[in-house]
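Hello,

I think I submitted the iron/sulfur cluster job twice by accident. Can you confirm which output corresponds to this input? Input:
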Amino acid sequence: MVQCQRAPPTRLSSSVDPRRPLSQAWCPAVRPAIIWMEKVITMHWQQPIPKSYLQMPSQELFARIARRKEQLGRKLVILGHHYQQDDVIQFADFIGDSFALSRQAAGLSDAQYVIFCGVHFMAESADVLTAPHQQVILPDLGAGCSMADMAALDDVEDAFAALEQANSADPDFRLVPITYVNSSAAVKSFVGQHGGAVCTSSNCEKILSWALDGQKPGAPPHTKIIFFPDQHLGRNTGWKMGFSLESMVLWDYRKPAGGLSEQQLRDATFILWKGHCSVHQLFRPEHVEQARQRLPGVKVLVHPECSWEVVRKADLVGSTEFIRQQVAAAAPGDKWAIGTEVHMVNRLARQHPEQTIIVLSECQCLCTTMYRIDPAHLLWVLDHLVAGEVVNQIKVDPFDAYWSRVSLQRMLDITAGRPLQEPPQPPPEHTTTAVALPALV
Ligand code: SF4
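Support: Only one job matched these inputs. Its output is below.
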């Protein structure tokens, strides 16, 4: 029989940390059920919007959205991620990747309302980076990111503690958490609190080099990196830096102790979280061979969220911005097979009819959650804004906002090659009052 460690609380008292999941306080026998319950409760549900929006003809939706945009003027900015569908992207004031878009919104202080046509973690980042008077809105709360959702804070805390425990006999042990920007604000905050940094797909190598602090491939792994949530970006970058696959282990958050022995945790340099992007994982090594047969002379260009096997076979690998730049700089007649989300690839093909551009695979490589943001939901939030009501606001609590900014500022400092700077005021305790923080530099 499993003994309960602590009695389950009957109510949340003021001494209970409100940020700690309830599952931490319950006995091991019922913990899995409580974790499941917490995940269900914290999932973001979108209330059904009125049928009139869903049944409205496209042209009428478009005309009404344009009119609402005009009415709101400079008070509104609409951000559109590269992977967004064209029916929505036509209304975006800015198009780009999540971090660049969030910084853009932060620079527009007139914009009281920031509508993020992306997914949940992107809207969180926008809320963290914008001023307190700016309200960030996600048109459909069901637009999550499967990758970000694979790294829940309580699982991250457990993994970190297990790694510290396994290496406690090593006096030179250092553990640096690094998270891809595609993660929740809670995970970015955890990373900030534990001396780590955020990375993007463009600066990942620089951030990992900083974390390793000179430790070379093959050297005793006193310094270790735990990398969230995308195993592929971590593996591809570590490999590019000269680290062997044997120096990397995969932490399976669904298994006790990550499915790894203490010896494996001591021997590894990289502990990669078992997360992936459901879109980029669809590309397979055989798709590269098939594309080369279909289009002789084609260059295969893939995102580093693709698997190591695909990246090894590709001609070029890089972020969405890198992909865009490669195509923009290419010559007429060039041929590309691109391994990233289908909306972005199709848009590039339309923008560059002088080149041949195809998706690497014929599978539906579509970000289905981002696809939930459609003109009907966009009009629905705009109608509410014009009526003076903010719906679907995404708000990060001040504690996590503070530490997320610390981890993001570290990323910017490391990328720029300058000393790390920490925000001037002390971190808020678990306060519910918004804290004005200096803009990221
Ligand atoms: S493409 Fe992948 S990583 Fe990007 S938002 Fe969609 S599921 Fe998340």
